[in-house]
Amino acid sequence: MLEKDRLFNALLAALYAVTVPALAALGERRFDAYFSLFTLEYAVLYALLRPRRKGRELVLPVLVAVFAYFAALRVLEVLGL
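The structure assignment produced for this chain is given below.
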């Protein structure tokens, strides 16, 4: 089980290390774009590897809630409200 935890942490760090320069190279400046990709990467790795946690998983629900907030703001911006 410990190997899955280490693999999860290593892959997550690697994905984050690739995401930041890639978005910066594309000229992306919005925080919500970075946060959305970080949330997606975390959720996919969590679903694939299922790292063991002490207690309940609190990070993913918080990330999804903040992602939903940013998505709602973006939708309201597109609708012009």
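Interim note for the steering committee: The chain has one domain: 2-79. The mean pLDDT is 92.
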